[in-house]
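Weekly modeling sync, notes
Attendees: S.R. (lead), two postdocs, one rotation student

Agenda item 3: backlog of single-chain predictions. S.R. asked that every request posted to the team notebook include the full sequence so nobody has to chase files. The rotation student volunteered to paste the first one in as an example of the format we agreed on. Action items at the bottom.

Example entry:
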Amino acid sequence: MTKFHCGSSYWILLLFTLLLVVGCGVVDVFDVSSLQQLELAQWLSSPLLTEQIRKTLTRANVPFAEQVSVDGYQADFVIQTADGHTHILETKPWKPTGPDITRAKKLASELKKLSVNGSYIVLPTIDHERPEQGIVSVHGLAALLKAQAGGQPLVPPMPVIPAEKEQRIVFAAMPFAAKYDDVFFVAIRGAAKASRSTAKRVDKEDYTGDVVERIRQRISHASAVVVDLSESRPNVLYEMGFAQASGKPVIPICSTSVDDIPFDVRNLNIILYEQGQTNALRPKLSRRLRAAFGGDSA
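Predicted structure, as returned to the notebook:
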């Protein structure tokens, strides 16, 4: 495990980046109807959206488990419908606009490749339901469940979802942009699966309320932290500094010029990769994760 000792100037840098992160948490104005704006404002934060989905599943009497590892991916929900099928539900407080709809469609497609019967991205609101593309709204979730059950009452006799167990978490600190989704899903998730652990990342919208406390919780629960230093993003630099100060194994990666990274960070053992070459990055990350776990992948 690589460690470094931070001087006061480095902590000042981290404090400054934290202020930038907090200052960037303003929701953009976007082109949706007034009703959609009201609905989105209500469920914009991930905790509120998650709670709404939890209530919807409970009312429908659908067995579910939360934060379950599926092939190295930490799913928000894994549910079982009355027909015995299992599905992943991912909560994403994204905007109901073209770019985010495209991003949700791509994520749903990737999740369907995992060991489940189906996967769906649940957004706060949407112009029309797209279950065939794996995208639904909070309000359309109940109808989706009934459809998946083949019209049968949603009263399964016994849930057979695997019980949750303690597992190693690999936290991914990385840019929020959609172009990095493959880095997480293909490389980081794949490497986590190979090392018998589970990958977890957060979205920009998760950074609401007490930002510092959220970061502390996620990093404190992690067994290792993969840090994508591409574009030298302030939030990523802060998370890396916090992880190092917490004594967590940190594995830095980067696809942009290391010259843009602060000088006291660029000398770390950074794994360089190229955008679009995430399959080549995965085995390098796997080796580094196994080393971080003391060579134990069991």
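Discussion: group reviewed the output briefly. The two ends are 18 Å apart (CA to CA).
Action items: rotation student to repeat for the remaining queue; S.R. to check formatting next week.
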